[in-house]
## 1
Amino acid sequence: MTPMDPAPLRRDLVRAASLAALAPALPVAAQPAAAPAAAPTLRVNGAVHDLAGLDPRTTLLDWLRERLDLTGAKKGCNEGACGACTVLLDGRRVNACLVLAATLDGRSVTTVEGLARADGTLHPVQQAFIDHDAFQCGYCTPGQVVSAVACITEGHAGSEAEIREWMSGNLCRCAAYPQITAAVQDAAARMARGEA
Amino acid sequence: MQPFTLARPASLEEATRLAAAGAMPLAGGTELLNWMRLGIAAPARLADISRLPGLDAIAPLPDGGLSLGALARLNDVAAHPAVRAGYPVLRQAIHKAASAQLRNLATIGGNLLQKTRCAYFRAEESLPCNRRAPGSGCAALHGLNERHAIFGWTEACVATQPSDPAVALAALDAVVVVAGPAGARRIPLGDLHLLPDAAGAAADTALRAGEIIVAIELPGPAPRSAYLKIRERESYEYALVSAAGALVLDGRTIRRARLALGSVAMKPWRLPAAEAALAGLSLDDTAALRAALEPAFAEARPLSHNGYKVPLARNAALRVIGMIAEGHAP
Ligand SMILES: Cc1cc2nc3c(=O)[nH]c(=O)nc-3n(C[C@H](O)[C@H](O)[C@H](O)COP(=O)(O)OP(=O)(O)OC[C@H]3O[C@@H](n4cnc5c(N)ncnc54)[C@H](O)[C@@H]3O)c2cc1C
Ligand code: SF4
Ligand code: FES
Ligand code: FES
């Protein structure tokens, strides 16, 4: 059961929140509260960033990596085929290499850097990947972890077969698939027990 | 990627106006961005329609059918209760398409407009391909054509249309509703994709300049329907061949059959003669079912490397009937 597209209400709230957080950050452009004309912004791991003046060709992936130095999301194929660039957009997993950053005004992105708690406690999925040795070179891992978080919250981690199917958009050239599947299964159980 | 400007139209009217002036609509972007990277398309302007209000709605129609807004994301179409209950063939085709994260971006309208996966067409270097460069020839005709067409091809192009949802929608007799500079019109799904012509490979679809897909309308539910996708790995791979079937049954007797094959032609390939011959047959009479399907495959024209697709497609058609029968044994 995929979560439904965020209702307009929620999007408006996100936008309002972004604008509120933006206000003190903008030195000169003390824009009056007239929302629509405000500079386009994108929230990443809770912090609001300015999208103004971006080359329209810039993908979300390049923007995260090159502008924000969030290099967790990886560029594997740059064509949607490997899943290494997976991030959450308004809570849903997407391939950041296939999204133009300039189209994301008012939206909210979570990258692998945004999963752990502020005190450094790892997300249950991150912990499960360590416990199950679910990586070798680690290149695909940030994408796997973010995708797994979504896979579990979508309710697609009910069985090994279901996990394999719903995680198939994340390739692992080291073929750590058995360990990844076990980690997702374990993390789903931990999250169901409320250990998140 | 070549430079382009990005417009965000606020209404459908503005979007069609921009499109008529040459802007290319951007929906999920999962095809378009790759085309721009490969040089398959080089639009000077994009019109971001992905957040046009209302165009992602899924709503019942007065006649008992269902309207799928063109911008509905594939995962949202498959998850919708009305699709789940009434159109299993579509739900299955979507779940077997692309990956979970791609389906959160990809729209149902954009999916129908995807281009062939022919490796010559998608190549980074320039190879003979009438679809990329009209008049340059077709490298696949006598080249690596094991994934290419067995129906409806010409020497100008032997490619296939790779969409899974399109095959399900063809079997469901869906109608594509478009808006354009000259107003709205309705295109039966079977008329949306164009077979290659004799001279050049020409256009992919019947859409005219400036036209935007608004919705895809499904007639009444087809609860006895299924999708079979045959591929080289179990998930996240394009079809070698696929089959969509929708049956109306009277006990174990077929009252009405609709069948469409995927990845065998440049459009979803309906089997009208076989569908007629299946009416009145028992689901348990496999020999008769097979005989009803056989003539459709006598018309197949395999290429040098894809003869395997003929029996594969025939068996897929038979098996999808079996899948429906098993799912609904009395
Ligand atoms: C790695 C990978 C694997 C894939 N595997 C599969 C698979 O197994 N099965 C399958 O079926 N598909 C598969 N796909 C294709 C994918 O489903 C399509 O890319 C997607 O559905 C296209 O939709 P979009 O919204 O992203 O289109 P876009 O990329 O936004 O647009 C595609 C084209 O359609 C036009 N367009 C979009 N919406 C409209 C509209 N409403 N009106 C008019 N024009 C419009 C655009 O201008 C563009 O020309 C795969 C893609 C990738 C990258
Ligand atoms: S089959 Fe069509 S797309 Fe492929 S090389 Fe030939 S003309 Fe190009
Ligand atoms: S880099 Fe985005 S899917 Fe491979
Ligand atoms: S751990 Fe090396 S690619 Fe997955």
## 2
Amino acid sequence: MGTFSPGFHGRARGLADKLPPGQYPTESFPVLSAGPTPRVPTETWTFTVTTENGDSRGWTWDEMMALPQEDTVHDIHCVTRWSKFDTPWRGVPVDAFLEDVETAADYAVAVSHGGYTTNLPLEDLLDGKAWVVHTYDGFPLSPEHGGPARLLVPHLYFWKSAKWVRELRLTLEDEPGFWESVGYHNYGDPWREQRTWDD
Amino acid sequence: MGDTPLHRDGNWLAGPLSEILAVEPTRAWWRCPTCGMAGPLAQLHVYGPEPGLTARCPGCTRVALRLVKEADHVWLTMGGATGAFRFRTA
Ligand SMILES: [Zn+2]
């Protein structure tokens, strides 16, 4: 029996591969907030996609829940340096909301209850890379974590995964959102450590 | 006569801004343009510190100030608008 089992080596290598630069792993699920937690009843919840022409398409909670659902597991990375592995979510791929939308937009702004915004290239929301999620680890998403529904864009820093999302505004120009307008990176790739404006 | 300049450069702000930023900020007085509530800085509700500080009106939650500290800079908006200023601090 050696000091290091193959299993230990396997996990150690796994961690190095899974952890972006400058991050540390955590088991907890820290809550960061920029304002009071909105309480949005599912009875009045809507999700809207608005194009650059002002055309919009909306879904009620029941309509959203009637769309094809996906279970999806991801590592998430917060710009405050914690990473959490294998987080299990259930929700609707953003593709489903954009299927019938005519747009020439290259960018999107996610708009939340409470006024939070975050900007992304539209292509980062498509092709199964982003979801509107309503369930975490088998339970309805709590308001503290963005429930009843939040955006999930796991390949970017977690501030891009807007809590309490209510609208996707498609734009021709990149419009910096809440944190992007005070020094945070416009794109926010954790593997390239794009934390701040200068990175 | 020569052209009258329509605007002056940002250096003209340095004097007034340094006066504002040099005084004791906790003695600042603030008034909310949305709900009209007014009071000293201490009454604001401040969220953060990470990823940044967000100060809000205790009456209506309107953003009163946002501040993000980096190693060498401070980003600041008065109010919730975009168009932040980045100050070099080191
Ligand atoms: Zn107010």
